[in-house]
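Recall that a protein's primary structure is simply its ordered list of amino acids. Everything else, from secondary elements to tertiary packing, is in principle encoded there. The following example makes that idea concrete.
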Amino acid sequence: MKKLINDPRAVVPEMLRGAVSLAPAQARLAAENVVVRHPLPAPEARPIAVLSGGGSGHEPAHAGYVGAGMLTAAVAGDVFTSPSTDAVLAGLNAVAGPAGALLIVKNYTGDRLNFGLAAEIARGAGTPVEIVVVADDVALRETVPKARRRGIAGTVLVHKVAGAAAQSGLPLERVAELARAAAADVGSMGIGLEPCIVPAAGKAGFELGADEIELGLGIHGEPGVRRGPMQPADALVATMLTAIIDDLGLSAGERCVLLVNGLGGTPPMELDIVAGSALAQLQERGLTVERAWRGTLLSALDMRGCSLSLMKVDDARLALLDAATTAPAWPGSGRLNPQPVLPAGPAPEVATAAGPLTAQMRAFRAAVLAAATALEAAEPRLTELDARTGDGDLGASLARGAAAVRALPESAWSGPAEALAAIGNAMRQAIGGSSGPFYATGLLRAARALGSETPGPREAAEAFAAGVAAVAELGGGNEGDRTMLDALFPAARAMAEQAAAGGSLAEALAAAADAAEQGAAATARMAPKLGRASYLGERALGIEDGGAVAVGLWLRALADVARD
């Protein structure tokens, strides 16, 4: 267990110290783990104070939502532990004026007890206090009564509604009424892909198999309602949405907002995939999504997973959600893009073959498709090599390029130069990163070198050498840098030598494949000088360069077909 902490017993005050230092409109109470809006008007001029909180480990909740238009104060307990009554009372005393305060409490026993007792003490001292309990976890709908469900990420939307209502100057009873109605109209469900690790415990609270997930889990590192198999994102989104929609009784034509929440260890890439899927499925169900937010908004430390929340809205509630706030963690307007896709430009014209392919071009295409097959089969090996010294995308990138080559129309194979240009453009369009530009540049240069000639061994060797030179020019590398050039340059020399000695094209390709494989093997003994591997220095020794290995693979496939 590795965490960027000092002392597990001090994580909460040290976390709040850092967070508040970056939030000019906030301050910490000196003796408590309480974050308050600062500065505040004089007590008699203050609107309703809105407070929330709970155990830490849910960041950016709850301190991240302290700001005008949302929370007036957030009370933080230890990790996954309710704050004390005294801490809640300190927050109340610091921010509440004669207009009173609203406490928003997630439905956990410790939170209800400590916030409830603090409210009772404050009332006894003359401060009007109302409590709103959020119990939005629909995964428990078949397990416990609705009033006993957990409060999870939908609480953030209740914060926003209540905070905006209080900021507008409404009286306490009306703010509480709007917040309770919002809490009643929100439903959430979460899934966990991997458990979290509590700093004080130093280990996960439960274990999951490689293909298992937890469905319907809370926000405290606990297991879910049930365990199931890992599924594609679309299927998991459908499971969550079905549970929420059924529980809220939403039907086609109704209006709602969507919250896609990461649990702490889920990258934005995956959350965006979930968000796109959820929006599409909600549209298919006939629901009108007025706003949607995506991000890590109420986490469970470093848990991998997400939750979805839906809240029913009308114009009045939507206005509260749209109201301005200075809370640093509120994710923005939530407005959807009305035109997320623009029409593509016209496709480039492809020359049409005058007639059936010649025997030479049928053989040429067979050799190229064999090379594509070799790259697809080698995807796991190339991925592993690249992951050990780079970013691990080489295998998938070249497999995509191979698929693009396989999809070329017959018209692309009208001649050697035309085919090389078509292959280069297909690789360019299919492969991102560095591999696409390198292969496209080399192939396009080789195509120009061939011209309209029917190549023999010498012409083929010259075109190959021209392509290799183009790759070297583009990347600024050379032989010995531990890159694909350490296979390409020896291959080009061997091919030229064999052709000059009167060898056939098949013999020239075989010599090139031999040289490329030897060059790729030699990269394991080279210290890298270019690319991501260069950041590793001598730690890359003993590992072949994936790009060089790939060159040996496709050259060997070409040579084998040419030999046959």
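The mean pLDDT is 93. The two ends are 56 Å apart (CA to CA).
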